[in-house]
Design goal:
The complex is a heterodimer. By secondary structure, chain A is mainly alpha-helical. In chain A, 74% of the residues lie in helices and 1% in strands. Chain A has a two-stranded antiparallel sheet. In chain A, helix 3 packs parallel to helix 17. By secondary structure, chain B is an all-alpha fold. The radius of gyration of chain B is 24 Å and the shape is flat. The chains are: A mainly alpha, B mainly alpha. Chains A and B meet through helix 9, strand 2, helix 12, helix 20 and helix 21 of A and helix 1, helix 2, helix 3, helix 4 and helix 5 of B.
Amino acid sequence: MSFVDSIAAGLSVVGNIEAFLALFVGVAIGVVGGAIPGMSATMAVALTLPFTFAMQPITGILLLLGVYKGGIFGGSIPAILIKTPGTPASSATILDGYPMAEKGEAGRALGMALWASCTADVISNLALILFAGWLASFALSFGPPEFFTLILFSLTIIAGVSGKSLLRGALSALLGLLLATIGLDLVYGTNRFTFGDPNMMGGLNFIAVLIGLFAIPEILAMVWNPTAHVGTARSLGKNWVTFADYRRSFKSIVRGSLIGVFLGSIPGIGAAPSAFLSYSEARRTSRNKENFGKGEVEGVAASEAGNNGVAGATLIPLLALGVPGDVITAIIIGAFMIHGLQPGPMMFILNVDIIYGLFIGLIVSSVFLFFIGSVAIRGFKYVADVPKRILIPGVLVLCVYGVFAVNNNIFDVGVMFVMGWVGFMMVRFQVPAAPFLIAFILGPLLEDNFRQSMLMSGSDPMILFRGPITWFFWGLTVLTVVAIVRAGVRAVRTSALAGK
Amino acid sequence: MTERQVQISLGAGAILASLFLLLWAIPQWVSSPSNVQKLILSPLFWPYALAGFTGLTGLGLLFGGLGSDDDGEPVNEPSDNPAAAWMRLAGMAAIMALTMFLMPRLGMVLTSMLVFVASAFLVRTRHPVTAVVCAVLIPLILYAFFAHVAGVAIPQGNVLRLP
């Protein structure tokens, strides 16, 4: 199929009002969800997921992608106006955004955040369109041993970079893998930890685990400390961003977008490190480096470009390899599965219309983000005024309905509550939840590819080293572990020296 | 809890979980066909491997914690009134347990209304009237969407039957 044919196939599935309306609504929900302190883009995507069950696959997935894109920008609004990042990725935006707000230039900072976000979004989407197909065609030659080593590498990097220590990330990933063993055995169909309960035979429901891990702990945290998340919003001021500001920051925006694309395409790195790296590179190379940290508009542009540059790129491993790059793409992979689609190289052959439909939708989402973002900047006051102690019970009720709707099963609601307490304990013990969820999703794939490899080779483990691709991933895995352990040892030594 | 205490607790917990899995849970609750000749192909292999790695990770966390200095800094922000915070958490656990109990009996809509009101008052809302209005409206709107748009069979219960 030629490129033009693929575009035409994509248009045939998204060329309708429902698809674009879903995308528009998704971006709006995302911006509002990301802007509410105490909510997050992850929570917004998780809570929107149950509403997609009744939709066409492409419409539902576009809705979620809209929420994802909107949520990442939305997080920068409270970061600038009340010094509270709506998402972890917006933390870097505070460094210059809040000092600008204190100087009465919040409107200018938010305008630049929006322009930088939209530019980075377009660059990231173009990278996705260029590289995902190429990577998928390369991955078509993968067999079970190659997929096993790829997933193992992804888990290593996700466990290593998601938290304060590799061991806590590894513990989190191992718990996710253990939880994924519940249900009937993949090959023999025998019981594993089902306790004779038919509800457990299909394994634990992904949505129940997801919402339990990411929404319920927020509710419990609110119950623990009901007066948290209270801040005073700064006024927008009279200064607005100008084209001259944009042109002056353009180099930092493009550099930040490319950093975002690179880091986003590696599973597990996420948007926050990208935003900080982009910010520090902009500060290092800027003519106004002495203004950074005191309210420099280029600093806002760089950090926003860094975190939004990740958004499209995290979909590269998702679509091309079927490996989620972060928690939000893990939720989106769940949405694909619920709609009977399996992301990965075969999707580029079997569902090319959906792939190109998504590409078209993503490009359009940047335009929607620009318009919705402009309105959201002015309307943030109303969003910030939503009483959290009304919002949180509403979220709890929404969780109950959403989880029940997956299988019409009250048992899933119980699973969600239990996972909520597990998630809350993980927060209290500073164990990252992202490796848990991603391992829970990748666990069955990892085991399945491992056992298929063993069946192919007659139980000879050497099949896991059978060619250059497996060696490549083993090499990357070893390098990652060594790098993370070295970084950990260095951090311990530095803190020990600082303590003396 | 300090960083060191967290590390040691996590390590000890992981080791105990690993021992429980290896010695009791896997032999008891994972079944394998008798004709599987090699352990590597058995349904038991993966759980045993994961339990073993969990134990090793626990050892790493435990020794890491024992070898580190205790700076005395708590890892979590202390609550203003810890006793009240624990009571609220216990209250939330009770609300969740009651939700599971009441849903098949009262139906999802009525249970959700009660859950909304109970949790709003648990977190000491400053807008009680709005909370009650939202407690009635939000479950009804969600019912209308899921039952009539998404086609989900929302449990109705014996007290309130909605169209």
